[in-house]
């Protein structure tokens, strides 16, 4: 499928005709939708399912659909224009019971079962390859001389997948592999746009040492961003309480933060940014449901990144002086991200 501008794809989605790919616990599931009939293609683990959608009333109904079919259907609908704030569900008694016990739905004052958009995007059975419950909390005194929770072991392989309809491509985040990714990382660091802000246009040996140091650091994980498995970007995600940013504000135990760069020129621009940037925030909020804030500290003159971060819900808390740079402290609240629907690019149109 060819790449289309965001606006054209969203206009097509408004007609509710086409194909959507969802990832349920890392397994691709295809949804075909035509007018008011939505079909979930069979997988090795489930049969074909037929669902009906009534946009006028916001009712989604099925007689035989199951949980693994419901999630891809909901993702395809909550990604539509105009955006539904909530969807009313007419389901089998067994599926209704399962959803009520999970807490993802509630009963409206009129007696209808309903799921809201902001609750849906916080479910971790979709998008995360290995969804899990929050890591048990045990506080320790860390190397940064602050008391913080023990962090879970770093994940390997693919961490997050999301189909991007206006690109007709799948965005994924995977753990960096030094042997596999060092050549790209070295090339990206020598890109003039990257070098201007990272200032690490070093040798392969020096950059390898840098990545190995981060690999041993429990508070930080290095990630490669890919479109259809092609690497295009590098991210460092970290627990803020143990990070160098901690002395400049009052961090919570589960605050997260990032450093980032786009290394491939072909993947710059609004269409791409609207895919990977909110998805990175989405991943951080899904990775641990106790994370209520995401922070960043871009250089104060990185105006383009700061302006774009504001469009996706970040606010500027203050400007401050790091030993190595003058920075802006940016912060994104979980409530603002999900209730503001900042995962969807329509906010920029």
From TrEMBL:
Keywords: Transferase
Metabolic or biological pathway: Siderophore biosynthesis
InterPro entries cross-referenced by the UniProt entry: Acyl_CoA_acyltransferase, Acyltransferase_MbtK/IucB-like
GO biological process, one term: siderophore biosynthetic process
Molecular function via GO: N-acyltransferase activity
Classification via Gene3D superfamilies: 3.40.630.30
Superkingdom: Bacteria
Keyword presence, Transferase: yes
Pfam families assigned: Acetyltransf_8 (PF13523)
Domain Acyltransferase MbtK/IucB-like conserved positions: 174-221
SUPFAM superfamilies found in the cross-reference section: Acyl-CoA N-acyltransferases (Nat)
Protein name: N6-hydroxylysine acetyl transferase
Gene: vbsA
